[in-house]
Write a structure and sequence with these properties.
single chain; about 180 residues; mainly alpha; 6 helices; about 70% helix; actin-binding; actin filament binding
Amino acid sequence: KEYRKDLEEGIKGKGMTVFEDTPDLIRVKNAAQILNEKQYKKDLETEIKGKGMQVGPDTPEIKRVKKASEIASIKEYKKDLENEIKGKGMEVGMDTPDIQRAKKASEIVSQKEYKKDLESEIIGKGMQVGPYTPEIQRVKRASEIASQKMYKDEAEKMLCSYSAVPDTPEMERIKSTQKNISSV
C-alpha cells in the first residue's frame, strides 16, 4: 500500500513525461532491430538448418511461393496497365510492332516445346511418326490427286476462254508448203 501510494503521489502526481523520439532514441531502436534480425538469422542457421530442415531455393514450397509471387506480379502489372495507362487515355493496341514480335516469339517457343515433347514423349517411346506412316502417305496422295484435278479443271476453263488465231497469209503459205512436201 505504501509503495502504491508513493507511486501515485511521487511519480504520477509530479508530471512524469513520456520521452519523445529523439535522434538518439531512434538510433537505439534501429540498433535493437538490427540486433534482433542478426539474432533471428543466427537462430535460423543453428536451430533450423542444423537440425536437418532443408531451406534452399529448390524446395517445392519455395518454388511454389516463387511461382505465386510471379503470378501476383503479373496480375499487378496488368492491373496497373489498365488503371494507369489505359485509364489515362493512352491506347495500347494489339497491333504494335513490339506486341506482334512478342507474339511471334511466343509461337516459335511454343512450337519448339511441342517438337521437343514430340521427340521425347512419342518418338522416344517407339511410336512411328514420320513421312512413311500409311496415314500420312494416304493424305499426301489425296493432296496430289486434288491438285491434279484442280489443274485440269483450270486448264479446261482457260481453253474455253481463248480463241484460235485466224490464219494469216503467211500461215496459209506454210500449210500449203507442208502439203506439197508431203505429197512429194
